[in-house]
Amino acid sequence: MDSGNAEYCIQREVIDEQRLKERSQRMDHSQTNLPISHWLKKSLSCSVPKLKRTIVGFLPVLSWLPRYSIWDYGMPDLISGISVGIMHLPQGMAYALLASLPPVFGLYTSLYPPLIYFIFGTSRHISIGTFTILSIMIGSVTERLAPDADFLIYNGTNVTEEVDIASRDFYRVQVAAATTVLGGLIQVVLGLVQFGFVGTYLSEPLVRGYTTAASAHAVVAQLKYILGVSPKRFNGPLSIVYTLADLVRLLPETHLPTLLASVVAIVVLIIAKELNNALRHKMLVPIPVELCTIVVATVISFYTRLNESYKISVVGEIPSGLQPPGVPNTRVFSEVVLDAFAIAIVGYAISISLGKTFALKHGYKVESNQELVALGLSNTVGGFFQCFSVCSSMSRSLIQETTGGKTQIAGVVSGVIVLVTVLKLGSLFQELPKAVLAAIVFVNLKGMFKQHYDVVALWRSCKIDLLIWLVTYVSTVLFNLDMGLGASIGFALLSVIFRTQRPSYSLLGHLPGTELYLDMETHKEVREVPGITIFRSSATMYFANAELYLEALKKKSGLNIGKMLTYKRRQEAKQRRRERRAERRAQREAKRQKRALREASQRSKKSVFTVEAEVNGDIHREVELGWRERENSTVFVIPETARTSDGCHTWMYLKGTDPDTATLGSVSDLHDGDTTTLDSSSEDTLSRDLERVSLGSLGKWTWDIHSIILDFSTANFIDTVGIKTLRNIFHDFGEIDVDIYLAGCQALVVEQLERGGFFSDGITEGRVFATVHDAVLYCLKHRGADVTIHSYENALDISGTRL
Fold first, then answer.
1. Which candidate, 534, 537, 535, places its Cα nearest to that of 504?
2. What long-range pairs does 786-791 form, CB within 8 A, spacing at least 24?
3. pLDDT tens digit string along 163-191?
4. In this structure, what DSSP letter does residue 631 have?
5. Beta strands in 345-488 (DSSP E)
6. How many C-beta atoms surround the C-beta of residue 530 within 10 A?
7. Could you read off the pLDDT of 245-297 as tens digits, one per residue?
8. Tens of pLDDT, residues 385-399
9. Region 747-753 average pLDDT
10. Selected residue with higher pLDDT from 22 and 153
């Protein structure tokens, strides 16, 4: 064999599933003989190192705090913590308004959860606290369960338009705390059962579309503070549409002093933030624009009496000190369980994505399940202290990372800043206009507004991701945050099912000089292996696409197996009917000839055919038959002479539609594919030979494929429907003498095939090969009667010229 041939035909053992099993059994023989008690003892045993790993895994602070270097990390963490703590103050109070709660509870939310995350969290750079999206989700729950209409003040028999704000806010705090505790418990349970991968169901297009839609809800929620009006509160689907319609109706009633204060605050914040971004490389720490804004606004409001003189709504009383912990109102759990689950999933997805981004950048690992537990405990413990749901904030996390934060100590420092404010400085912000807090929220949503540009980017890159983004955005805007999240997740999963149901199918060819087999449509240099079709699907075969897999295999191979088998069975049935008619006619003719022979025994014999027919035992007769010519390619076989002493006949080939109107043909007259058994010693050979007439002899179809290899390297599982479809493929193609083989199956797929009863005497594990190349070598070796391996090898050269 020359060098070109050796380049393809690599001399090595052909590896199929049976050989792989034999090898693995020899290697694992010592392990399989171990008793079950050994495995139980090993899994349930407890050692000091194992106990230490478990404790440190649950309390990550024990792994890094003993090795904390004050000289290396102390000052960066201190500067970073102060910067983040200053951001916590305005954002906590502003996002409390989004949650429809008094601003002081936003400060509580910025205090307790970061301290809990310090102990249990694994990310060194994310800032846990209030966040826009979760605040909006909490606000939708509090307003639904505690609307203003339930807290109107009764004056005798008359109902006034005045709302009992104290009672309303007290119940809303209870609802928010109960929702937070329940959401935290859900996160803890999911983390303990190693369900941290749940966040992967929220793809990036889904999350970005969801947060963009949530920003629209946030803007609408803040318009009443910016315009100084009091629209009606709407809940359920299309609530944002009804709220906007009511705001438009109230535009003539806009409070101009409040609108002026909002516009001034928005303009100042935008200009200051742009300057901050432009000069960030020249400053050690960024200027706390938001804190400066609320301080200046509070001072102006205090000295100009904005609330008394111009009726501008202010924050109001902020109690000094901390609230004692309390048990949440468990009676509302049943009403908020779905909201709590949605909040738990969204909060975790945002936190883990941000945490992994920083971990990848700085070279450490974030544990998904432990992050779920840490976030859940932060929410659960925070809920007992009247906090609402928290997660990581992108803006604060970026400040913590860019100002040099190294560890979770920065979160503790930020908590101390908030604690000092709550204890000593909270009362100073009582005159802060709510319009300024609304302006802070409005400006902070600028980044989410920019996500509308995702539509252009996704249009260019992936239309399906664009569709997910649009469906998520529209459903969240129209159906609110909870139902929108469920609808978007459902649609995203359906898109995955649709893509696996409609995968791409391809035929593979050999790349000369290698063991690689590539798509023949996209790689022009590959060559088809003669007599072998290699078929591959880009997705696994399961109940949703099994029928499509079979149809694609028929189309790609050019063998319409359904029509071919139907035609073959019809022809076999016709041949059996013709055989029975021929036997009856032969019997009648034999009787007629018997009488004729008696009358004309002396008549000279002409050219006749003799037919041996066995009637009532072993009586043999010679029959003289006359045949008329009729054009048809169906093949019949009859005995030419009587049975000899050794029990054999001499067989002749006849052509025609039925035995009494057929023409004699010799072996040399047969068309390609017209085959039958010669020299049969069985009396029913004629019947069985007629039944085994191949499709090629019927003159309907011809093909040059003797083997089909199904590349299963892309399959990661197979269900019962897929197993049944595979079994049918093996059986149906086998009826037309085409062998089917599997290649590249993963161990799990082979195991599922075994459990599903796929293998039998007819389909053995010898038909499953480790690679496509092993299957090709096997086919070329064992189907040499069709295309020998030597003829194929000799047709190959180094340059890869097509056959």
1. 537
2. 786/531, 786/704, 786/706, 787/530, 787/531, 787/706, 789/9, 791/530
3. 888 899 999 999 999 999 999 999 999 99
4. -
5. 391-392
6. 16
7. 999 999 999 999 999 999 999 999 999 988 888 887 887 777 888 889 989 99
8. 999 999 998 889 988
9. 92
10. 153
Q: Which residues contact 703 (CB under 8 A, 6 or more apart)?
A: 558, 559, 738
What is the distance between the alpha carbons of residues 80 and 95, in angstroms, rounded to a whole number?
22
| DSSP secondary structure of 276-319 | HHHTGGG-SS---HHHHHHHHHHHHHHHHTHHHHH---B-----
Q: Which two tokens stand for residue 48?
A: 């000091």
Average pLDDT over residues 530-534: 92
Q: 3-state DSSP call for residue 517?
A: strand
The two structure tokens encoding residue 792: 């194929």
Asked if 783 and 706 touch (Cβ cutoff 8 Å), the reply is yes
Q: Are the CB atoms for 153 and 160 separated by under 8 Å?
A: yes
Least confident of 13-17, 296-300, 499-503: 13-17
Identify the residue whose tokens are 């139902």.
483
| 8 Å CB contact between 422 and 386 | no
Residue in this structure with the two tokens 């290698």, named with its chain if needed: 514
* Ramachandran sector of residue 623 (left: φ over 0; alpha: ψ -120 to 50; beta: rest): beta
| Integer angstrom CA distances of residue 693 from 572, 578, 700 | 8, 14, 12
Both tokens assigned to 722: 């897929």
Mean pLDDT of 205-232: 90
pLDDT at 691: 44
- Residue 640 pLDDT > 90, yes or no? no
Q: What is the C-alpha to C-alpha distance for residues 206 and 601, in angstroms, rounded to an integer? A: 98
What gap in Å lies between CA 78 and CA 403, rounded to an integer?
A: 10
Dump the DSSP string for 771-788: SHHHHHHHHHHHTTTTS-
Q: For 662-684, how does the pLDDT look when each residue is reduced to its tens digit (9 = 90+)?
A: 333 333 333 333 433 333 333 34
Instruction: Please give the pLDDT value at position 674.
Output: 40
Say if residues 546 and 697 touch (Cβ distance below 8 Å). no
CB atoms within 10 A of CB 42: 9
pLDDT tens for 410-436 read 999 999 999 999 988 888 888 999 999
Contact present, 132 and 388 (Cβ < 8 Å): no
Cα 21 to Cα 24, 743, 744, 760, distances in angstroms: 5, 15, 15, 16
pTM of the model: 0.72
Task: List for the chain the helix, strand, coil content (%; round to 5).
Answer: 60, 5, 30
DSSP per-residue codes, 195-263: -GGGGGGS-HHHHHHHHHHHHHHHHHHHHHHHHT--PPP--STTHHHHHHHHHHHTGGG--HHHHHHHH
Task: Determine if residue 681 is left, alpha or beta; phi over 0 gives left, psi from -120 to 50 gives alpha, anything else beta.
Answer: alpha
Return the pLDDT at 247: 93
**Residue 567 backbone class (left: φ over 0; alpha: ψ -120 to 50; beta: rest):** alpha
Strands of 707-711's sheet, edge to edge? 517-519, 505-510, 532-537, 707-711, 739-743, 768-769
Q: What are phi and psi of 526, to 5 degrees?
A: -80, 160
